[in-house]
Design brief:
It is a single chain. The protein is of the alpha+beta class. It is 56% helix and 12% strand. It is built from 22 helices and 13 strands. Helix 9 runs antiparallel to helix 10, helix 15 runs antiparallel to helix 16 and helix 21 packs antiparallel against helix 22. The longest helix has 20 residues. The radius of gyration is 24 Å and the shape is globular.
Length: 510
């Protein structure tokens, strides 16, 4: 079968699958396919030419629902009916394993490059047994630094911290179970404990297949030694994996962010607070960042995160033009100090998506991903930018890549997903994604009402907007949306506002 992959289209016999635009057609006529069936077909298409296991498909298509293999079988049958007589040759059943879309991947494939064939490694949260409260933030920073260092090697996939922490919370320190949940090949875990000359960090590299230890070493983490620990540990871990995995390094080190231990401590504490994802802690995080910069004005990453804190304190999209420009100044300073650091580039690109510098934002975030293709944070930034630029298919491609790096999804994943699906006018799918947002804010509840209005679900419209009115009686739905979502193209902005206007009309008639 020919694989015509121009513009994301894949030829499946006489049927054309357009992954980017979310359509399946024959002779120019759109074929109806249920949302789950279409999602499964797209997943097979992204992995065409290889056997996709039943477990992987169940996890990808029904991530938050327990279903039997009967549901998978019925969904595959639904796809085969839509594809027609050639379906048996296209969708192949591999006994006791799974399914394969029998279309060879094209060398010029524009679908997101799968990283599932790369060795997958996860860095578990380190255990602190030192009894020194101030050391905890330092150890957490080293944990992140090792992950960043490993992510610079293009023949490794580093699993995102959020997924790792969720797996450990569920499975404890059972390395085999954690590895299964994360679909990981290797785990790094560590314990900080008192040593003869000060605190030390004992690191271990483990094979997930049986939980066996591949390598172990003890590192000094007292005083100034903490500043180079992440670099030393990264090089040693990669050295252990290199001969077996043929790792090709882009860089064997992580840029040392600061040579000042006090600045390091403030930055580490700020990062520890940010990881808790509690808006009430933003002010405290900012205070630590400002102290880090006061001690070391040449601390590029501290400037970059200060830019994020500036936007976060003022509601991101609700921030004034003055606040956005101030955040941009901070982010630009971070890049000037550390131009080769992926996180400073991503931070500047993220801020530029709020200041309307769309081309520059995309260039910076793209460069960050080239330097560190396994950064979940940067993929989030790119997904958000693609929403702002009204390229929803590319947003969904970013989310598909995130599924590989971050198999246990964060709540923000569904916020990005529902907005992309709304832009594609796939309102039913958008409603399902919105339902998975655990704690929607006021703007997201208004979005939910807009989706319900587009579907003609009047009762849901009233339920969502009643909740907004109860929490914020004076909330100006349209003004908040116009301020928060600064789309590059007016037509896409109008599409969003049209849904909100429909919802308000239904609600006021209520």
């Amino acid at each position: 079968m020919a694989d015509n992959n121009q513009d994301g289209r894949i030829a499946l016999g006489p049927v054309s699958l357009d992954v980017d635009n979310g359509t399946l057609s024959r002779d120019g006529e759109t074929l109806e396919l249920r949302a789950k069936s279409f999602a499964l077909l797209c997943h097979l298409a992204r992995n065409r030419g290889r056997v996709v296991t039943k477990a992987e498909l169940l996890d990808a298509i029904w991530p938050d629902v327990t279903v039997t293999e009967d549901s998978l079988t019925q969904t595959v049958s639904d796809i085969r009916r839509a594809l027609g007589p050639d379906a048996g040759d296209l969708i192949r059943t591999v006994p006791r394993r799974g399914y394969m879309l029998a279309v060879a991947p094209d060398a010029g494939d524009s679908a997101p490059r799968s990283t599932r064939h790369l060795p997958r490694i996860a860095i578990l949260p380190f255990t602190d047994q030192t009894g020194q409260p101030d050391l905890g933030a330092r150890i957490g920073f080293v944990n992140d630094g090792i992950g960043m260092g490993l992510a610079r090697f293009r023949t490794l996939t580093v699993i995102a911290r959020h997924s790792v922490e969720s797996a450990v919370e569920d499975a404890g320190r059972d390395l085999v179970r954690v590895g299964e949940k994360l679909r990981a090949d290797y785990l790094v875990d560590g314990t900080a404990r008192p040593g003869p000359n000060g605190p030390v960090l004992a690191l271990r590299l483990n094979d997930c297949a049986d939980g066996s230890m591949v390598w172990a070493e003890i590192f000094d983490c007292s005083g100034d030694a903490i500043l180079t620990l992440q670099d030393d540990a990264t090089v040693r871990i990669v050295g252990q994996l290199a001969s077996a995995l043929l790792i090709e390094g882009r860089s064997s080190s992580v840029e040392q962010p600061t040579s000042n231990v006090t600045a390091f401590d403030h930055y580490a504490k700020a990062m520890a607070l940010m990881r808790r994802a509690d808006p009430a802690l933003v002010d405290e995080s900012r205070e630590h960042l400002e102290r880090a910069i006061a001690v070391d004005p040449g601390f590029g990453l501290a400037w970059s995160w200060l830019a994020w804190a500036e936007l976060a304190q003022h509601g991101y999209g609700l921030a004034s033009d003055e606040v956005r420009q101030r955040a941009r100044t901070y982010a630009q300073r971070g890049v000037e100090i550390a131009p080769a650091e992926p996180r400073t580039l991503a931070a500047l690109g993220y801020v530029q998506s709020f200041t309307g510098e769309y081309d520059a934002a995309e260039a910076n975030i793209s460069q960050s991903l080239r330097l560190n293709p396994s950064s979940a944070d940067t993929l989030h930034d790119m997904a958000i930018l693609m929403l702002v630029r009204c390229r929803p298919a590319e947003t969904l491609n970013c989310l598909a890549r995130l599924d590989e790096i971050q198999p246990i999804r964060s709540g923000h994943y569904y916020v990005i997903q529902f907005e992309a699906l709304y832009q594609l006018r796939r309102y039913e799918d958008a409603a399902q994604a919105m339902a998975r947002v655990a704690h929607p804010d006021l703007r997201q509840r208004v979005w939910a009402a807009a989706i319900a209005a587009q579907l003609g679900h009047d009762a849901d419209v009233r339920r969502h907007l009643d909740a907004v009115a109860a929490e914020a009686p004076g909330w100006d739905h349209l003004a908040a949306a116009e301020r928060s979502y600064t789309y590059e193209h007016e037509s896409d902005r109008d599409h969003m506002l049209d849904g909100i206007r429909k919802a308000l009309a239904i609600w006021r008639q209520g």
